[in-house]
């Protein structure tokens, strides 16, 4: 309802009530009655004629004057109360004189006897204790090469064929022997005086370094085995049986050590921060986390995907690389949400630079509750 209409209605209603009830509530008081005396007017001639008709001997009766009302005596004035005599002002009390503070006496500091200097005992032989290493995100230090007291040249072609006879070396090396030499480092080397450093030994040494009570010193070196002398092998006569055995061993080793060629490192200029942010924003637009459970929102998943040159991801190559922070059910929910985001937003192709295809043809995307990033 309009505010003006309400105010107007209230004003009109008050006016109507004033007209109806005003005369009754605010009626004027009755005035006292005015005394009226009837008189007649006469002229001077009429008055003289009336006086002439009066007899002369008539003595006018003197009308005694009405007694004047005596004024009422004024009420006696109240006797003034006697004013109290002014009391003498009390004499001000003498202010106490401030006590003079005694002069501070100098504090006598007690003489402190100098403490006897502690006698430093001669340093005893302290056995250095390796501090307990703790795991840290710092990069692994490069292990130092260990040198055995007696340098022994590791054989170029160590073969774990202790029971088998040593193959004879032909004067003209066959091409199969060269293949064996190239693929030989993949086989386990024969133990010798030197400890060859491989990835497995580095992991073992790292585990030993992180152990809380283990010493970082290496284990005792195993007994050194003498390598087979090459000179006798060269002097042995070549036989058809030895040649066949050598070919069989070379073929077996070549088949066992054959591995698919590892993908080379990505070539070309790396992706800039702006290009990575553009990819992150493109995928994050389709990442719907509203349907995830509370536990799934606390789960971090890393998803790998292969991308074609036109920027469209291969749906069949999407895989879960790793996860953390939740149960199997939460991990599955988080992975499905990430997979849908990659497929939906990549249907038209991701905004990636074509000249850097070697850098982004294999992507690893990290989906966590705080956001998404490219690893």
UniProtKB/TrEMBL annotation:
<feature type="compositionally biased region" description="Low complexity">
    <location>
        <begin position="149"/>
        <end position="163"/>
    </location>
</feature>
<feature type="region of interest" description="Disordered">
    <location>
        <begin position="60"/>
        <end position="275"/>
    </location>
</feature>
<keyword id="KW-0812">Transmembrane</keyword>
<keyword id="KW-0472">Membrane</keyword>
<keyword id="KW-1133">Transmembrane helix</keyword>
<feature type="compositionally biased region" description="Pro residues">
    <location>
        <begin position="62"/>
        <end position="77"/>
    </location>
</feature>
<feature type="compositionally biased region" description="Pro residues">
    <location>
        <begin position="93"/>
        <end position="107"/>
    </location>
</feature>
<feature type="transmembrane region" description="Helical">
    <location>
        <begin position="6"/>
        <end position="26"/>
    </location>
</feature>
<protein>
    <submittedName>
        <fullName>Cell envelope biogenesis protein TolA</fullName>
    </submittedName>
</protein>
<feature type="compositionally biased region" description="Acidic residues">
    <location>
        <begin position="81"/>
        <end position="92"/>
    </location>
</feature>
<feature type="compositionally biased region" description="Acidic residues">
    <location>
        <begin position="178"/>
        <end position="193"/>
    </location>
</feature>
<feature type="compositionally biased region" description="Low complexity">
    <location>
        <begin position="248"/>
        <end position="261"/>
    </location>
</feature>
<feature type="compositionally biased region" description="Low complexity">
    <location>
        <begin position="207"/>
        <end position="217"/>
    </location>
</feature>
<feature type="compositionally biased region" description="Low complexity">
    <location>
        <begin position="108"/>
        <end position="123"/>
    </location>
</feature>
<feature type="compositionally biased region" description="Pro residues">
    <location>
        <begin position="164"/>
        <end position="174"/>
    </location>
</feature>
<feature type="compositionally biased region" description="Low complexity">
    <location>
        <begin position="229"/>
        <end position="241"/>
    </location>
</feature>
